[in-house]
């Protein structure tokens, strides 16, 4: 049993240091016999236990954050996810999302694993900081997605609810100001959710599946067998038009596809890659 007097000031000091709740801080100080470092470790261990206990929980809420370099050649996207919408609006959660994004910008990690291992200013890694906030808030928090893209010109878009973000890599701008056109294309990606930039970016397994589905439908409609291949090819082209970015009708002007819209904006302008992330999708 502790013989050390735990004061309200001690509890508040530990709370300020860790962000944990008052009762949790008091219990940790009592258990640690007033040793602040030991109490911090106890709180961190509690966070780790909470994180493990909730590891199977769905994380459909959260916040997507994006940073594009000043020269527009690199973009980073971090989707920090949690279980419920109220937590996504908590100041500590939002501050953590910004801290993780800042760590990504400063250290240029290639993937989420590298990002999680970065040490922040307070000496804790990103992963440890997430675990501690998990313990404080009491629900699962994870880096759901991380993207690091580079190219001639990067344009970004974040949906108004903060749960969807897009990074688009443009090539062939040749010095032209494509800011407005770039935003239009990023919003097109957000709205229409293409599966690839162009036909050659579609997974062969997806193409094969679409062809087989089309053939089955055509046969069920009673079309002659000699026409099946030709009709299926037409349906595949319709699939490309609906599902690949450059072949989609441009949302703001259905008389042109996105490829033509970009070429009209600046001769040779095109998209080489994009990343679309939506929490709760």
UniProtKB/TrEMBL annotation:
Keywords, sorted A to Z: Cytoplasm, Elongation factor, Protein biosynthesis
The source's superkingdom equals Bacteria
Where does this chain mainly localize? cytoplasm
The compartments listed are: Cytoplasm
Query: Could you tell me one molecular function GO term of this UniProt entry?
Result: translation elongation factor activity
Give start and end of each Translation elongation factor EFTs/EF1B dimerisation domain: 76-280
Purpose: Associates with the EF-Tu.GDP complex and induces the exchange of GDP to GTP. It remains bound to the aminoacyl-tRNA.EF-Tu.GTP complex up to the GTP hydrolysis stage on the ribosome.
Q: Name the family the entry cites.
A: Belongs to the EF-Ts family.
Q: Enumerate the HAMAP family for this protein.
A: EF_Ts (MF_00050)
Task: Name it.
Answer: Elongation factor Ts
| Organism field | Pedobacter mendelii
The beginning of the lineage is: Bacteria, Pseudomonadati, Bacteroidota, Sphingobacteriia, Sphingobacteriales
Gene symbol here is tsf
């Amino acid at each position: 049993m502790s013989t050390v007097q735990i004061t309200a000031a001690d509890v508040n000091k530990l709370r300020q240091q860790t962000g944990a709740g008052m009762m949790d801080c008091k219990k940790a100080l009592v258990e640690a016999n007033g040793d602040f470092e030991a109490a911090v470790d106890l709180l961190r261990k509690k966070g780790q236990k909470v994180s493990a206990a909730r590891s199977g929980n769905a994380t459909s809420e959260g916040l997507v954050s994006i940073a594009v370099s000043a020269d527009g050649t690199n973009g980073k996207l971090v989707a920090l996810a949690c279980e419920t919408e109220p937590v996504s609006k908590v100041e500590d959660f939002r501050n953590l999302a910004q801290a993780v994004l800042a760590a990504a910008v400063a250290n240029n990690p290639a993937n989420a694993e590298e990002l999680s291992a970065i040490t922040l200013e307070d000496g804790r890694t990103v992963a440890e900081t997430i675990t501690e906030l998990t313990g404080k808030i009491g629900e699962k928090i994870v880096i759901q997605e991380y993207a690091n893209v580079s190219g001639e010109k990067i344009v970004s878009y974040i949906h108004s609810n903060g749960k969807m973000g897009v990074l688009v890599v443009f090539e062939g701008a040749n010095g032209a100001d494509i800011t407005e056109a770039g935003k239009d294309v990023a919003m097109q990606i957000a709205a229409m959710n293409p599966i690839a930039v162009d036909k050659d970016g579609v997974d062969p397994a997806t193409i094969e599946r679409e062809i087989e589905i089309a053939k089955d439908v055509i046969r069920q409609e009673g079309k002659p067998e000699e026409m099946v291949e030709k009709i299926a090819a037409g349906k595949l082209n319709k699939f490309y038009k609906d599902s690949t970015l450059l072949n989609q009708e441009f949302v703001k002007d259905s008389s042109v596809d996105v490829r033509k819209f970009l070429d009209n904006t600046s001769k040779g302008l095109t998209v080489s890659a994009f990343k679309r992330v939506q929490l709760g999708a």
